[in-house]
Design brief:
Elements (H helix, E strand, L loop, with lengths): L2 E5 L2 E2 L7 E2 L6 H9 L1 E6 L24 H9 L18 E5 L7 E4 L8 E4 L4 H15 L4 E6 L6 E3 L1
Parallel strand pairs: 7-8
Antiparallel strand pairs: 1-4, 1-5, 2-3, 4-6, 8-9
Length: about 160
């Protein structure tokens, strides 16, 4: 049986097609960045009981045998698995298919030019930021680092 691995990912509106990977300031996050891999957790490891609440079927559905499943896959490829109440997040999931039959996380390689920007929080420890800058400089050239700060007047983040 093939297992679908799931990475926490969010996309901006379709016109921008950017994928965001959220990570805390951990050694694992730095190691993954240094090695050019994205951590993909199995969907069963998420703590939200509605997360990926769906049936998983293997393969591409045959439109003659399973027309409803084929149309659903064709129109919503990417499995919109969260309830409609969360639609304001404009969130998508990155699904990675694996031939493994366990539920362990996988590390998926990506090209160095896939990293176009790093956004850190306003409370990022300065020593961690310096280490992050060193990894970027060594492995990714001049990728900009921006800081997300709370807006002083509205309930928004400002990225500068």
């Amino acid at each position: 049986m093939k297992v679908f691995q799931l990475a926490w990912a969010s996309m901006q509106p379709e016109s921008n097609r950017k994928l965001y990977k959220f990570s805390g300031p951990t050694e694992y996050a730095l190691q993954n960045l240094e090695n050019g891999v994205i951590f993909c957790q199995h969907y069963s490891a998420y703590n939200d009981p509605f997360e990926f609440w769906s049936n998983i079927y293997e393969g591409i559905p045959d439109p003659k045998v399973e027309p409803e499943r084929f149309l659903a896959a064709a129109s919503a490829w990417g499995f919109g698995t969260k309830p409609a109440e969360w639609s304001y997040e404009r969130e998508r999931r990155l699904l990675v298919q694996s031939d493994r039959d366990d539920e362990l996380p996988i590390l998926r390689k990506y090209p160095a030019d896939a990293i176009t920007q790093i956004v850190v929080g306003e409370r990022m420890p300065s020593d961690y930021r310096r280490r992050l800058e060193a990894v970027l400089s060594k492995n990714y050239g001049s990728v900009p680092i921006s800081t997300a700060r709370r807006s002083p007047s509205t309930y928004r983040l400002e990225i500068e």
